[in-house]
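Re: that chain you flagged

S.,

Sorry for the slow reply, it's been a week of failed gels. I finally had a moment to sit down with the sequence you sent. For the record, here it is as I used it:
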Amino acid sequence: MPTRDTRSGPNTGGETRPTLAEVARAAGVSEITASRALRGGVHVARATLERVEAAALALNYVPNRLAGTLAGGQSRQVAVVLPSLSNSVFADVLNGLETQLEQASHHPILGVSNYDPLHEERLVADLLSWRPAGLVIAPASSTEGTRRMLAGAGVPVVEIMDIDPAPIDMAVGLSQHAAGRAMAHYLVGRGYRRVAYVGHDISTDPRALTRKQGLERGLSEAEVTLTATVLLPGPSSVPLGREAVARLLADVPPGGLAVCFSNDDMAVGAMFHAMGVALKVPDDLALAGFNGLAIGQALPLPLTSVESRRVEIGNLAAKALLSRLEGETVARVQDVGFRLIPGATT
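Prediction finished late last night. Pasting the structure tokens below so you have them in one place:
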């Protein structure tokens, strides 16, 4: 006679949880068949699958995925570690990931590091302890401990957004260095010889740092150097951009000055500052961002930027991970490229 899980809690109202045996009995199948049906229906007839699903729904049965994983089953969970959800950049990536994973009956489990390398290390350790099918990560300035865990994870690992450093396993993204260099070439081509950089704390954001290095490289190729650099602590945001450009202009006069920002949201903040102090963009002050966010393109003057193909990055990262789970050979590095948006602010 099957046993009942008699545990109860605040969300159960004191009721016991239905068992797989009860679902199987209600559907008129064996427990093995019921288990196969609830794991995705592999080798289960459609009519049987529908009976099992109907029985599970009627009984409010929720499978214990962790138990199945510990018993050697395939996890349907994919660990995802992102540095931020404060703007749409990583929300777009997550949307692309989730779309592909859900189509394959996999589900993302999200951790947000807030660009804190030690917090990122703890997240990776915790998520891997649940034995996910794979892991997708947009690294902060990862610790050696994090890199060791990723290298020894025993599951597919996809690093996203940046393809400049050699990946531990697989990488999907763009060359951040090339994107920064392309912006430098564009600004020089527009006749700018005074170029400043304004950004958030790049000590924990390797991608922003690499873009800045690419910008400096492109400028140096035209024998131009950065006029000034302003970096403020904290993640990029519209208010931070407004504050940072105000600090810049307290020391550097406008007029033929082009300012590159680590992200579009900071450039939008700079536009608000310019409007507030009656500076004309781009005549007095030229602005350039990164990511091609909708908010930048919705400004009265569409923002000059570099479009990062974020949804595509999420899609391809999920496809790479799922293909590896199927035993297929996957390219170690996938470059989605980028597109420079000329805009009207330069």
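What I noticed first: The first helix runs from residue 20 to 27.

Talk soon,
D.
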